[in-house]
Q: What sequence folds into this?
């Protein structure tokens, strides 16, 4: 292949989706196969105690978590305008107040996926 233009499968500066991992250390399970922050399958966790009690974050627009999430989402949306937003944790629903964030993101995306363990 000579003098070929690069193929752009995503179109002009558009991203199909944004996987937003909010806090992978915040989970109410201790699955040995999980590759989140609490996983014993990560080489960085070798010899460390893991599966500590989950971190109970609190979301509000003026909290540190709220400001960080808003900054990330604004930058990604401004640059790429992804139609899909996937939210995951750890376990996203142990974050107090997270439903207000989810509700605020819903009108901005065609598809909103929340990954949860349901517990």
A:
């Amino acid at each position: 292949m000579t003098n070929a233009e690069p193929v752009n499968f995503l179109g002009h500066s558009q991203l199909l989706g944004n996987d937003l991992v909010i806090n992978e250390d915040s989970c109410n399970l201790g699955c040995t196969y999980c590759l989140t922050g609490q996983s014993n399958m990560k080489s960085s966790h070798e010899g460390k105690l893991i599966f500590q009690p989950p971190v109970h974050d609190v979301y509000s627009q003026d909290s540190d978590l709220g400001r960080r999430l808003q900054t990330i989402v604004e930058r990604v949306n401004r640059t790429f305008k992804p139609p899909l937003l996937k939210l995951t944790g750890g376990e996203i629903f142990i974050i107090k107040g997270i439903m207000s964030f989810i509700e605020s993101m819903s009108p901005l995306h065609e598809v909103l996926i929340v990954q949860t363990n349901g517990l």
